[in-house]
Amino acid sequence: MAFKPKTKIMYIGGARPNFIKIFPLMEEARKWERIKPILVHTGQHYDFEMSKIFFEELKIPKPDYNLGVGSGSHTIQTAKIMERLEPILLKEKPKLVIVVGDVNSTLAGALVAAKLHIPVAHIEAGLRSFDKRMPEEINRLLTDHISDYLFASESSAVQNLLKEGIERKKIFFVGNVMIDTLLKSKVLDAKRTPRRVASQKSKILEKLRLKKKEYGVLTLHRSENVDNRNVLKEILETIEEIQKKIKIIWPIHPRAKKQLKKFNLFDKTREMENLVLIKPLGYLEMLSLNIQAKFVLTDSGGIQEETTVLGIPCLTLRENTERPITVTEGTNLIVRTKKRRIILETSKILRGDSKKGRIPRYWDGKASQRILKILNRTIKYGRF
Ligand code: UD1
Fold this sequence. Notes:
Shape: globular
Largest sheet: 7 strands, parallel
Order of helices and strands: EHEHEHEHEHEHEHHEHHEHHEHEHEHEHH
Number of helices: 17
Helix content: 40-55%
Distance between the termini: 16 Å
Bound molecules: uridine-diphosphate-N-acetylglucosamine
């Protein structure tokens, strides 16, 4: 057996997408029986629909620690996580800390571990929007530069890291763990055929009284979109036009809801007959909704990737993407938040003229396997 008895590996997550990415890694690590996983939930997300439902659906073990940090400014959130995490790391002394994605919990976790000289593995390393106004870009840059193992989901990420002077030997192109979860959930097989002819799939349509391909999905939560009244207003005006042609389902993120109310824009959503606001959905329901949609309008990173694999047209309401492969190879188009362009592109899709993509390299459900193999080798040769 390659592992020494009880090699402690600590996973740190806090926001909704983190757990979707940690899930396949924990599953894979189970095969290595001498790994002792420790799961820390920072509590960055805390609503049932933003956190617990993912643990229930994906059967992720209950976190060993919950730091309960909740919401706050970036500084407060990051600092609270750091303060509460340090004593746990000192007590548990893990051999490796794994952080995923680009949220405040990612940076805070990496920083505390690095300061204690505990090796850090960053899953989804090297993605860059080249826009430092995005909080996520700061988190990505800093996390990568203090990590010891950088696992990249697409080849552009490898190039970014090399250009920033990170040593080649620390970088591993392994594929996309989010897609591992998607394929593991058996909503479809590798040929994109719906496999779980799923009660899930019909349930969500029934629940929302929808017909397959007769609706679009909207998701919105990025600070640059929801914290700026003018931008949010222009998006709403755009949706107002689109919903005249096709029903739009909007599982609304708590941050977006809060901002709509703050800017006195919430009532505007009620005036739109064909816009349906619903609570945030769980993982399987969201996937089932997206898989049967005509298109998805989003500012999420993960949804750009999932729609590429699902073969669903995706219009990204942002100036840029840190996941360029979803545009060069996938079904994604960057449409910014400008009304004319978004309406033009949705009309094209409604006419049947949508972008066809292919599945990027290593988005094959085996990224976690590759990561664990690399870590196993590293442990075997006593590098940590
Ligand atoms: C965070 C991440 C973002 C990620 C997203 C996934 C950062 C900087 N941002 O954004 O990169 O794409 O998670 O969803 O880490 N709130 C609730 N209940 C919750 C969580 C949040 O009501 O369970 C509300 C609070 O009003 C809070 C606001 O949402 O102030 C923002 O939450 P926060 O965790 O700061 O960032 P997200 O917008 O969720």
